[in-house]
Amino acid sequence: MDFPPDLRYTKDHEWVRLDDDGLAVVGITDYAQSELGDIVFVELEAEGSEVEAEGALGTVEAVKTVSELFAPISGTVEALNDALDGAPETVNADPYGEGWMVKIRPADASDVDALLSAAEYKEMIGA
């Protein structure tokens, strides 16, 4: 399993990367997608929605289960990965790249620093 060291992670298996434009790119971890299995549908909050850290951000539906997606930080949803509408399996194939889910304008960018490092996340899941 892959845990890029430049990302931050949540206990709920989301990852976050701050882009140069200040947006926080969010997706689910390689561990999460492997535990879910084949992803068949992703439903996300609408662009412009205000989200609270640890609040609902959407759902990820796999063949046998539906899992909540939680906001890792508070802010405003600025963009959705519309490509997932027609190809949700992209999350399985490339969870840290093309399988990103939303971009959030952080209410406070320093909130990202409070999330888990790759090493802390790996320890949490026992990897």
Automatic annotation (TrEMBL):
Cofactor(s) essential for the protein: (R)-lipoate
Residue intervals of the Lipoyl-binding domain: 23-105
Protein name as it appears in the record: Glycine cleavage system H protein
Modified sites of kind N6-lipoyllysine: 64
NCBIfam families with a match to the protein in the record: gcvH, PRK01202.1
Purpose of the protein: The glycine cleavage system catalyzes the degradation of glycine. The H protein shuttles the methylamine group of glycine from the P protein to the T protein.
Keywords: Lipoyl
Domain of life: Bacteria
Family label: Belongs to the GcvH family.
InterPro entries in UniProt: 2-oxoA_DH_lipoyl-BS (IPR003016), Biotin_lipoyl (IPR000089), GCV_H (IPR002930), GCV_H/Fam206 (IPR033753), GCV_H_sub (IPR017453), Single_hybrid_motif (IPR011053)
GO cellular component labels: cytosol; glycine cleavage complex
UniProt xrefs under PROSITE patterns: BIOTINYL_LIPOYL, LIPOYL
Subunit structure: The glycine cleavage system is composed of four proteins: P, T, L and H.
Listed GO biological process terms: glycine decarboxylation via glycine cleavage system; protein lipoylation
Cofactor note: Binds 1 lipoyl cofactor covalently.
Pfam families recorded: GCV_H
